[in-house]
Write a structure and sequence with these properties.
single chain; about 120 residues; two-stranded antiparallel sheet; 5 helices
Length: about 120
Amino acid sequence: MGDILPSDSNRRTWRACLLCGLIKTKEQFRADGCDNCDEVLEMRGSSKRVAEYTSAQFDGIVGLTQPNESWVARWQRCDKFTRGLYAIRVSGQLPEDMVEDMKERGFGTYRPRDGSVRD
C-alpha cells in the first residue's frame, strides 16, 4: 500500500477527495490525481482543482486493503475503489458546475460524503 498512502505522516497535510473520500496529500493529488475519480475530476497537474475538489476537513479514517471483499467498504460505498485510506465523512461538496458536468457526461448521481444525504 506504500504508493497509495499519504506520503506525509503529518495528518494536517492530508486531504480527502470530495467524490470518493480517498485520502492523500495535496502534492499527491496534484501529481497523480485521484486514483478513483481523475477521469471525472481531472485534478492531475492542477492545484486549483485539487483545492476545489478535496477537503482538509474530514472525520474518521478507514484503511482498505481489499475493498471488493470488505463489508466496511460496501457500507462506505467504496467497494469498487482502489485500496487506500478513506475518510468516513468529508466536509464540503463539489461545486454545482462540476455536478452538472458529471450529469451531462453520464457519470450518474453525485452523493456528497458530508453526511447530508442518507441511504
